From TrEMBL:
Keyword Secreted on entry: yes
Cellular component, GO annotation: extracellular region
UniProt feature, compositional bias: Gly residues: 193-205
Residues covered by region (Disordered): 1-97, 191-228
Protein name stated in the entry: Calcium-binding protein
Molecular function terms, GO-annotated: calcium ion binding
Source species, domain of life: Bacteria
Record Pfam families: HemolysinCabind (PF00353)
Main subcellular location: secreted
InterPro entries registered for this protein in UniProt: Hemolysin-typ_Ca-bd_CS, Hemolysn_Ca-bd, RTX_toxin/Mannuronan_C5-epim, Serralysin-like_metalloprot_C
PROSITE patterns cross-referenced by the UniProt entry: HEMOLYSIN_CALCIUM (PS00330)
Keywords, sorted A to Z: Secreted
Length: 424
């Protein structure tokens, strides 16, 4: 059947058919049988089970049951293989190929332009992976149904996990030219980006997100979510959404300077090594691990009392300063300077001779209480504070600081003021 010029509607019905749309904006239906559909010129829509060719212009090719071959040709084409193991070619233009639950193991060559694989999950718990292959393309896998989609010349991947507790792992995608747009949907999801500048959306549920390389954007949505930055990652944005959300920042085994400062309704985390910036909104907790090296981790620029910092200096002589909230700070090994800042803080020096600093916080009309765990005069620990009085309460030495709001420092397990050394 040859539509010739004009906008045609061709229906092959039963049997093995060959349909040619030629000029015009045509609709071709192969029906049952082994059909060949060629849209020709114009913006065409092809529906069939076998061989579909869009020709030039912007076409929509929809395969049916069976193993189909779809060729979009020139133009910005929309390709859907349907059930069966399908092969799709985008040709020139910005093309998309969509995989839906129930489809088979497909192959998609995007051709020229900026092409997109769209992968829709189900409401089951699923594990999906994206990994670069030797030919420069990538392999997309899904454990439910043992699905594989092989791609070449594809620059963008859009994944929707929908319902269920999903794991969508793009960490094996090492091509910086490929962008991942991953949505976990409802459920407690684990989302990992790849080498490019990716977008992660946890959706509802308690989600775990890692951007990996590139400058990434993450949105937690509803639930208690976390976003992790690791050495080598880029400059990222994290909106925690509703719930109690956490930024996890991992340092390296080098000397680093990190700072947390107010930024609009959120805060900015900076790191001098690599000139890193992570901007956040709707984040209530920050976990920082300096690892080895003489690190400076300064949270004093963070003035939101609702944000709690958990800072671990790791090995090295570190300077650790908390923010306005109720923080937990651990110096770990070596000789550290620990300053909780404002709020009711828990301070641990760890091994080595550590100095605990008090009195830098501005009076706010509230008496704050800090707790020191593991104070050891024999290891060389020092207290840098102006003390007005001391007493023992419940087996712990309690120091009342002079001036301000008469803040209190409790030394856990210490019962005698003579067992404490002060900075002169």
């Amino acid at each position: 059947m040859d539509g010739g010029s004009g906008n045609d509607w061709l229906d092959g019905g039963n049997g093995n058919d060959r349909l040619f749309g030629n000029d015009g904006h045509d609709r071709l239906f192969g029906g049952s049988g082994q059909d060949s559909l060629d849209g020709g010129n114009g913006n065409d829509r092809l529906f069939g089970n076998d061989r579909l060719s869009g020709g030039s212009d912007n076409d929509t090719l929809l395969g049916g049951s069976g193993n189909d071959s779809l060729d979009g040709g020139d133009g910005n084409d929309v390709l859907r293989g349907g059930t069966g193991n399908d092969t799709a070619f985008g040709g020139e233009g910005n093309d998309s190929f969509t995989w839906n639950p129930g489809d088979g193991n497909d192959i998609f060559d995007g051709g020229g332009g900026t092409d997109t694989l769209i992968f829709n999950g189900s409401n089951d718990a699923e594990r999906m992976t994206i990994a670069t292959q030797a030919n420069g393309g990538f392999l997309f896998t899904r454990d439910v149904g043992n699905i594989t989609v092989n791609t070449t010349n594809v620059e963008r991947v859009e994944v929707d996990g929908r319902g269920g507790n999903d794991s969508i792992d793009g960490s094996g995608q090492t091509n910086v030219g490929v962008v991942l747009d991953i949505s976990g949907g409802t459920g407690d999801d684990s989302l990992l980006g790849g080498a490019g500048g990716d977008s992660l959306d946890g959706g509802d549920g308690n989600d775990t997100m890692i951007g990996n390389r590139g400058n990434d954007t993450a949105s937690g949505g509803l639930g208690n979510d976390s976003f992790t930055w690791n050495p080598g990652d880029g400059n990222d944005l994290f909106d925690g959404g509703a719930g109690t959300d956490t930024l996890i920042f991992k340092g390296a085994n080098v000397a680093e300077v990190m700072a947390i400062t107010d930024l609009g309704g959120g805060f900015r985390f900076t790191r001098n090594v690599g000139s890193i910036i992570v901007d956040t909104t709707n984040v209530e907790r920050v976990d920082v691990d300096g690892l080895d090296g003489a690190d400076s981790i300064d949270g004093s620029g963070q003035t939101n009392i609702a944000v709690a910092l958990e800072i671990s200096g790791g090995a090295g002589n570190d300077t650790l300063i908390g923010g306005a909230g109720n923080d937990s700070i651990s110096g770990d090994a070596d000789n550290d300077i620990v300053d909780g800042g404002a709020g009711n803080d828990t301070l641990t020096g760890g091994l080595g001779g550590d100095t605990f600093v008090f009195g830098g916080a501005t009076a706010n009309g509230v008496t704050e209480t800090d707790l020191i765990i593991g104070y050891s005069e024999t290891e060389g620990d020092l207290i840098d504070a102006d003390v007005a009085s001391n007493t023992v309460v419940g087996g712990n030495l309690q120091l009342t600081l002079a001036g301000g709001d008469n803040d209190i420092v409790v030394l856990q397990g210490i019962t005698n003021i003579n067992d404490v050394t002060f900075v002169l």
